[in-house]
Specification:
By secondary structure, this protein is α/β, with parallel strands linked by helices. It is built from 17 helices and twelve strands. The protein has two domains: 194 residues, MOFRL domain (glycerate kinase, domain 1); 177 residues, Rossmann fold.
Length: 460
Amino acid sequence: MSDSLTDAVRQCLLAAISAVDPRELTANALRGWNAGFAPRSVELIAVGKAAVGMAQGASDALGEALRGGVVIAPDAPADVPASMPRGVIAFAGGHPMPNDEGVRGAQAAVRLLGELGAESRALVLISGGASALMTLPAHHIALDDIVATSRALMAAGADIRELNCVRKHLDQLKGGLMARISAGAAIRVLVLSDVIGDPLDVIGSGPLVPDSTTYADAIAVLRHRHVWDALPPSVSAHLLAGARGEQPETPKTGDPCFANVEIEIIGNNALAVQGAAAEARRRGFEVEVVAAPVDGEAREAGAAFARRVLEAMSQRDRSGPRCIVGGGETTVTVSGSGIGGRNLEFAAAAALVIDGTSGVAIGSVGTDGRDGPTDAAGAVVDGATALRVRAARLDLADQLRNNDTLRALDAAGAVMRTGATGTNVMDVHIATIAPAQDSKARRSSASARRSPGDPTAAAP
């Protein structure tokens, strides 16, 4: 039963990714919008991991109304696909760290907005990763200094709200500043959310919405994460000058620059979770959807999810298989020599909790197909995963403590690789549980086998 349980997890995770297909979501949101538009009257800016798919969806729906525009995406194709609008220029921006190409793309977007005529309008498509991919550093700050600041915050475990609070005060477009540059032009914005709760001022660092954060908030984040003293001088000087009122703040609620901006969220993590749940039901599972988003440190969240699964196993009956589905986004504080990966650490911690238990499988993937700095989307584990790791002469608890779970989970055949998916709505977590008659649900003396420092040692 274990093989079929892990296969069901994998198929449900793939269904979650399919449910947030950016091309289809964008085309559906735009159908009919161009009624009465003159040909070639809509300029396009698409930024993020889903930028190519969203731009293709815009072309599907709007046809000749589109004039062209700018696409900034990771690994953007050198030859723009035929299904994209004519006149589109593609830039291969950097993620998770910005690069020179992303800066050139940001500059092209600024030129496009500055050239909008009275009869034209802009369509801006924003998806996960946009904040890094479209970077235009504030004057007197080098791109390398932006990269150093971002890398320090990520290594210190900063969440996306903290990271983007800082980014918004080091950039010429983020935090509503793109709207100020557009000088009142009509702009429609479609958003594929990659942030828990779908806060528009955080997604992509909110280039077209009011910003509630300040320079002082950005400084507080950097101090809280203990990276202030290690900042490049240009960054700290810029933030301190802003806090003293020596340069303008980001635009706030009520600023007239937002008067002609219309914005809509067309997809999010909840939609991906629904896609996974629908596939599980199709496969005959009784499904429980976790209402609260999963966040916090990845290894702690993974252990807590696994304990929830064990509790569900203790209460099951013989009526049929069960499935628990959740979503959200965790963080990893890298303190060891490994490279992390929040879904890998989530899965590794879960594997330690269910070590020795039959009749259960747990999976966690990033919907973008890239788990942090790794080439994995995530992993699917079961009660024998930790044993397989030990057979490879590795210790999963030690690997987790060292932020080096990719090697261990690869040795156990647990890693799930999808390649870049072209979308991004955070992470999805799934557990499948066999009916009572199909599982002895033995909890062996797994806790005794765990090393004393294992963060899951307190699991039931």
